[in-house]
Amino acid sequence: MSNAPLTLVCQGLTKTFNKDLPESRPALNKVDLSIAKGDFVVLIGGNGAGKSTLLNAIAGAIQPDQGALQISGQNITHLAPHKRASLVTRVFQDPMAGTAAAMTIEENLAIAERRGRSHRARRLLTDGRRTVYREWLKELELGLENRLDTSVALLSGGQRQALSLLMAVVSQPALLLLDEHTAALDPRTADRVMGATLRAVSERSLTTLMVTHNMSQAIATGNRLIMMDAGRIVFDVRDAEKASLTTESLVERFQIDNDRMLLKH
Ligand SMILES: Nc1ncnc2c1ncn2[C@@H]1O[C@H](COP(=O)(O)OP(=O)(O)OP(=O)(O)O)[C@@H](O)[C@H]1O
User: Fold this and answer.
1) CA 108 from chain center: how many Å?
2) Which is the closest atom of ligand 1 to the Cα of 15?
3) For residue 123, is pLDDT > 70?
4) Structural domain contains residue 79
5) Global pTM?
6) Rounded Cα distance, 7 and 16, in Å
7) b/e sequence 254-264, b meaning 16+ C-beta within 10 Å
8) What is the full DSSP assignment across 37-69?
9) Residue 93 is assigned to a structural domain of this protein
10) Whose CA is closest to atom 11 on ligand 1?
11) 228 within some domain
């Protein structure tokens, strides 16, 4: 285990949807999970394993039935989603989800920069901030640095997703959640967005939890891998042990027969 301070602590997180149905099973079943500051954790698991429910609980989109959540030592179990927005940010699978289409790139960035704070975005659009935004956009390597006043509605799905990523990191959150954020993109664009992700995470030393169905990506990315099944964490490896994993060994170990998880891209 690392000696770094803990960024995320989930204790006994439990959530059951539709409890009154006889066939209902917990989506989260007493999940204990601690993530150290600076870790890049990859979360895998078959359909219905509980991955999105875990991310939803961390982001505050759902309330757990039982259990507690802390980020950077602060108890956030009952904190409203907008009140945890300065602590935890998220990039969704859908490129349309993370940006405001009717606003320009610079307006979106100004809002993201003030996430969790109350100032009005427009007041921040000074030449000084525009210079900073150009630098940030350059990091994406998508040529957006010269299009600050372009409406986001005119961007491609990949460009919007890269902008969503930037918007999720510029406020320097304690925890970045990536929810299959490259899965809806074509392979080439997915690689570029993943490259921008790795640069953004490393340059800002962000603590990250990423869900993916792509086993090759899961093996190649991050320093810790966890697998969920039926609402529980069933596998948890880090560092050298993670680095020695192969797609074949994981498939054999967990008898994975989910085609999506075996996709190479
Ligand atoms: N809002 C909801 N209402 C009812 N049931 C839900 C809801 N969200 C999730 N579930 C159920 O909880 C279980 C876990 O779902 P979850 O979406 O967390 O799995 P997942 O690992 O993200 O799966 P996938 O890879 O298919 O997205 C599933 O049985 C799912 O049907």
Assistant:
1) 19
2) 12
3) no
4) yes
5) 0.91
6) 26
7) bebebeebeee
8) TT-EEEEEE-TTSSHHHHHHHHHTSS--SEEEE
9) yes
10) 27
11) yes
Q: What is the mean pLDDT of the chain?
A: 90
Residue 68, φ and ψ in degrees, nearest 5 = -140, 155
Task: Scan for tokens 């993670």, then name that residue.
Answer: 242
ipTM attached to this prediction: 0.97
Question: Which pLDDT value is given to residue 24?
Answer: 87
Rg for the chain (alpha carbons), in Å?
19
Query: Which residue's alpha carbon is nearest to atom 31 within ligand 1?
Result: 48
Q: Is residue 1 part of a domain?
A: no
Contacts 24+ apart (CB under 8 A), 107-111: 108/152, 108/163, 108/167, 109/133, 109/136, 109/163, 109/166, 109/167, 109/170, 111/167
* Residue 67, ligand 1, Cβ within 6 A: no
Q: Of 9, 69, 11, 5, whose CA–CA distance to 38 is shortest?
A: 5
Name the residue range of residue 25's domain: 6-262
Residue with structure tokens 């959640």?
A: 177
Paired tokens of 68: 């507690």
Q: For residue 73, what are its two tokens?
A: 């030592």
Q: Report how many domains make up the chain.
A: 1
How far is ligand 1, taken at its centre, from the CA of residue 177, in Å? 17
Residue 99 has pLDDT above 70, yes or no: yes
Nearest 5°: phi and psi at 120?
Answer: -75, 140
Residue 263 pLDDT: 45
Q: How confident is the model at residue 71 (pLDDT cuts 50, 70, 90)?
A: very high
Instruction: Return d(Cα 51, Cα 226) in angstroms, integer.
Output: 10
Q: How far is the CA of 19 from the centre of ligand 1 (A)?
A: 14
CATH number of the structural domain spanning residue 125: 3.40.50.300
Note the pLDDT tens digit of each residue in 13-45: 999 999 888 888 899 999 999 999 999 999 999
Q: Can you name the residues that pair with 208 across neighbouring β-strands?
A: 40, 176
